[in-house]
Amino acid sequence: MLRPEQMSKVSVTGSKGVMPEVIEAVHDLRLLHVTEYDGSWQEEFGFETGSPIEGAESASDKLVTVRSLKSILEVEDTDSGRQRIVPDDALGEPLEEIRAEVNELDDRRSELENELRAVDEEIDAMEPFVDLGLDLDLLSGYETLQVVVGQGKVDPVERAVVDADDINAYEIFSGERTHAIFGRPVDGADEMALADALVGVEFATLEVPDASGSPEEHIRDLEQQKREIESKLDTVESELHDIAVEEGEFLLAAEERLAIDVQKTEAPLSFATTENAFVAEGWIPTERYNTFASTLKDEVGEHVAVEELERAEFSRDGHDHAREDVAETGGTAAATDGGTVSMSSDDPPVVQKNSGAVKPFEILVQAVNRPSYYEFDPTIILFLTFPTFFGFMIGDLGYGVIYTAIGFFLYSKFDDGALKSMGGVTIAAGLFTTLFGILYGEIFGFHLITEYFWEGVLGMSHPPIEKGLSPATSEWALGWLTVSVAVGIFHVNVGYILDFFENYELHGAKDAVLESGSWILMLNGLWIWIFSDALGGVPPEFLFTTFAADGLIPLGFSGFSFTVGWIGFGMYILGAVLLGMAELAELVEFAAPLSNVLSYTRLGAVLIAKASMAFAVNLLVFGVYVDDHGGWHFGLGGMPDAAAVSALGAGETLSYHGYEVTEVLFGGIFHTGAAGVVGGLLVLVVGHLVVLALGVTSAGLQAVRLEYVEFFNKFFEGGGREYNPFGYDREFTTED
């Protein structure tokens, strides 16, 4: 799983006479990731880039036609109900008849839409004149009067007309927003005198429609015209819909058939060819080579030669793959390149070897980049760590069940793609949230699992682990910071170790020690020093008590000795020296082993933050009282009398439901009457939905950040090519 599937570069050589048969066989196998011929053999050996097979142009034109028809008819992939055979004659006259009918209807639809748009524009233009309230024929046709219609404030307009020297009389008719100004110019005045007078005034002039009569009547006529156009448009749309229903399945199948034809006929564009022969190269999974070669032999016979040119593997000279000698494999002498058969020195594509529950996590890796062929695929590590981080931070049975249900819905609803993968990731995160919720003894922030399972069934005094939110369990909050640091040390170490092995296999032991071993020494040496007596009382005490024999997690570790601590510091200095020998500039990152690990304390911080949010919701709804040991209890079955508790003297307690109550933090909305019950339920539901959503945006993003920033950058670069074999995954067509 940590390595991609091993790939082999193969060569397929034959005469041009069998090239169509070879293409057909290779297409059906769907194994060969074709390498594009780069022209490197042309000058020396006369190989040129191949030409499309006869029929490529026709198939391409028909494919464009079918896709255009699909777009016009809005045919979706879901409109297909079965696979079907698409014979050649179905792509001739029947397709042309569909094209002619659909194009005619589409043109008619465009005409009607343009007419409808023009009518709408006329109606919009007529609305201001309805507001004005004057017949349209009164607004034009005068010899001695000039008329301007527009919208704006009437007072500035009137002032401008009064001040105009070329206007000796005027009248203004107004609606709510529209005004018509009638002005009689002086003798000899310009025909635009009234309009010129309004220049500079905030007044938007309107063009008077070339019509007569009432604007209301004109709009009624336009609306009737609009309804007639809409009726015709509905008829056209209905006819197009009928064609889509009747021919949609055929168009989907035709598109697939033509896409396959185009793929096959244009395949030679990637080949190296002479007048009589061709050479095709590409990558296939090594374990499928025998199947590939034997199938071609069976289909084409001795007219084709299949050779395994190279088997991609790591090598210490920095190359991505080792090439086999042509003399040992019997390659084609005409296509030699320094003793090898290769038309292009391309990197092998990457096939990530993950299956089952691990495969959905590839989406988290590919969100950064696809792993290159030279490096480890971290998918399996994300599968182990990401759900653990997420579940630890949320840790609640109720939330876990909901996350799992959401993930199952996504995983089962979608057949393939990102949403299905995210469903798988969400299922894993939900299951770990459920597991930690049981260990914490919580469901939606309530300690019901603790009460009924850990204490009731198993007779324990508390759950195996606690979040540390109440005063009675506050030492757990500090303990989780220690655990977070320990997890960070381990996780970052894994990243550096993977980098060590990558460097060792690619470049040898020296580079591995200098470039990766240096960081391993610095990381572990620094934290051995911190977890020791060498620093006296500088490190916080909880670092040494969390894992002590009598600590929260009794592993018997209470810190390293003074001597071991200084040995650790020496390891850190040695690592820094080795790092400087490899790349002096990297010494500026000398504090990275400290900052990277401290970044993991966000695990404990988010744990407390999410627990606090759920606690706050439950506190508001049900209230909380405190016992004499500092424990917090929700008032699910009622609340002790707050007045009686507040009247207690020093050292006095009130017995309630088996607890000695010392304080009531909050009485709870739920206990304030009928209105409180309704309001409390609303706060409860909305509050937990908010916490549920924030669990994704906080715990989810923080877990992803730790993977990408603190872990990936230790060894992962990405840049791998996706394995895209020549062929087609049929969905709508069949050849049987």
From TrEMBL:
<comment type="function">
    <text>Component of the A-type ATP synthase that produces ATP from ADP in the presence of a proton gradient across the membrane.</text>
</comment>
<keyword id="KW-0406">Ion transport</keyword>
<feature type="transmembrane region" description="Helical">
    <location>
        <begin position="423"/>
        <end position="449"/>
    </location>
</feature>
<dbReference type="GO" id="GO:0007035">
    <property type="term" value="P:vacuolar acidification"/>
</dbReference>
<dbReference type="InterPro" id="IPR002490">
    <property type="entry name" value="V-ATPase_116kDa_su"/>
</dbReference>
<feature type="transmembrane region" description="Helical">
    <location>
        <begin position="513"/>
        <end position="532"/>
    </location>
</feature>
<feature type="transmembrane region" description="Helical">
    <location>
        <begin position="552"/>
        <end position="582"/>
    </location>
</feature>
<feature type="transmembrane region" description="Helical">
    <location>
        <begin position="477"/>
        <end position="501"/>
    </location>
</feature>
<keyword id="KW-0813">Transport</keyword>
<feature type="transmembrane region" description="Helical">
    <location>
        <begin position="603"/>
        <end position="626"/>
    </location>
</feature>
<feature type="transmembrane region" description="Helical">
    <location>
        <begin position="380"/>
        <end position="411"/>
    </location>
</feature>
<keyword id="KW-0472">Membrane</keyword>
<dbReference type="GO" id="GO:0016471">
    <property type="term" value="C:vacuolar proton-transporting V-type ATPase complex"/>
</dbReference>
<keyword id="KW-1133">Transmembrane helix</keyword>
<feature type="coiled-coil region">
    <location>
        <begin position="95"/>
        <end position="122"/>
    </location>
</feature>
<dbReference type="Pfam" id="PF01496">
    <property type="entry name" value="V_ATPase_I"/>
</dbReference>
<dbReference type="GO" id="GO:0033179">
    <property type="term" value="C:proton-transporting V-type ATPase, V0 domain"/>
</dbReference>
<feature type="transmembrane region" description="Helical">
    <location>
        <begin position="669"/>
        <end position="696"/>
    </location>
</feature>
<dbReference type="GO" id="GO:0051117">
    <property type="term" value="F:ATPase binding"/>
</dbReference>
<feature type="compositionally biased region" description="Low complexity">
    <location>
        <begin position="328"/>
        <end position="341"/>
    </location>
</feature>
<comment type="similarity">
    <text>Belongs to the V-ATPase 116 kDa subunit family.</text>
</comment>
<dbReference type="GO" id="GO:0046961">
    <property type="term" value="F:proton-transporting ATPase activity, rotational mechanism"/>
</dbReference>
<protein>
    <recommendedName>
        <fullName>A-type ATP synthase subunit I</fullName>
    </recommendedName>
</protein>
<keyword id="KW-0175">Coiled coil</keyword>
<feature type="coiled-coil region">
    <location>
        <begin position="219"/>
        <end position="246"/>
    </location>
</feature>
<feature type="region of interest" description="Disordered">
    <location>
        <begin position="328"/>
        <end position="349"/>
    </location>
</feature>
<keyword id="KW-0812">Transmembrane</keyword>
